[in-house]
Design brief:
Layout (H helix, E strand, L loop, with lengths): L7 E2 L21 H11 L3 E5 H4 L8 H17 L3 E6 L18 H21 L3 E5 L4 E2 L7 H18 L4 E5 L8 E2 L4 H10 L6 E6 H6 L4 H10 L3 E5 L19 H13 L3
Helix pairs in contact: 3-4, 4-5, 8-9
Length: about 270
């Protein structure tokens, strides 16, 4: 029986094996080769960070960014693959190390919006209408360093600007309670729904649930999935696994808790996801 699901994968899922405490242990595989293998395995689409599609984008003009994205689209087309979403990688730049959208620096917030706008441009060139916001550093390491109310409002303001920039784009917020920051301004699917309702077009703002992130919040990922479905705003799911509340492990789905994995699929299937 053909699955009712469509599966996507990020190029970062095939990497050189380095971690926070150790070096690279595998050779780099070219992006085109990854896409070819993804198709062979049976994936339907590829997920992108903005700089997966356009490396070194900070040093390129807007038109150059679009051109590079078109080159990636050809690789996808040649392999019969689609793009699922584009996510601005705002956690790896010195200008966004204290948050992009919620930074206390006006210049850094403007840079974060530039990356968000360019992510929308890249998505348009790749033929997809979804922008994922993993709000990795939108919170605090030192609680007293930011006004949390202002932080939430700045996230809403940033999303509104994205909705204004492109009338067709959808924004998916991927919640996570901590790591790399200590306290996130948008840690759970419930927070995502609240932020969505406060934007100028809630119909275009939904959520992406990742199993491990729900577990890190001390929640049942199946219930987080169900909560998003109840609002009609669960627009993507990252199925993985996690050994209790510790650092984000990104383990293979089902390797830690088979019952928990079963219930995630159960709620998706029973609701015709």
């Amino acid at each position: 029986m053909k699955s009712q699901f469509k599966f996507s994968v990020g190029p970062w899922n095939v990497h050189e094996g380095a971690d926070a405490f150790g070096p690279e242990v595998r050779k780099t595989i070219a992006f085109a080769k990854k896409v070819e293998k993804f198709k062979e395995i049976g994936f339907d689409a590829v997920q992108f960070h903005d700089d997966d599609a356009v490396p070194d984008m900070n040093n390129l003009s807007d038109s150059q960014i679009r051109q590079k994205a078109r080159e990636v689209k050809k690789i996808l087309d040649d392999n019969g693959m689609a793009a699922e979403f584009v996510a601005p990688r705002l956690w790896m730049d010195p200008r966004t190390v204290d948050g992009g959208f919620t930074s206390n620096s006006k210049e850094d917030r403007e840079f974060a919006m530039w990356r968000a706008y360019r992510s929308i441009d890249i998505a348009n060139e790749l033929g997809c209408d979804k922008i994922v916001l993993w709000l990795a550093r939108e919170g605090t390491l030192c609680y007293e360093s930011k006004n949390p109310i202002e932080g939430v409002n700045r996230i809403i303001e940033a999303i509104n600007k994205m909705l204004d920039y492109d009338k067709n784009i959808k924004v998916l917020i991927e919640p996570k309670p901590n790591e790399p920051i200590d306290r996130s301004f948008c840690p759970t699917m419930g927070h995502v729904m609240a932020v969505s309702s406060a934007t100028k077009d809630p119909s275009r703002v939904g959520g992406l649930l990742e199993t491990a992130h729900a577990i890190l919040a001390g929640l049942d990922p199946a219930n987080e999935i169900a909560f998003g479905l109840a609002f009609g705003k669960l627009w993507s799911v990252h199925l993985n696994d996690q050994n209790s509340i510790r650092y984000d492990q990104d383990k293979t789905f089902g390797v830690e808790n088979l019952r928990q994995a079963f219930n995630q699929i159960k709620v998706l299937v029973e609701n015709n996801y």
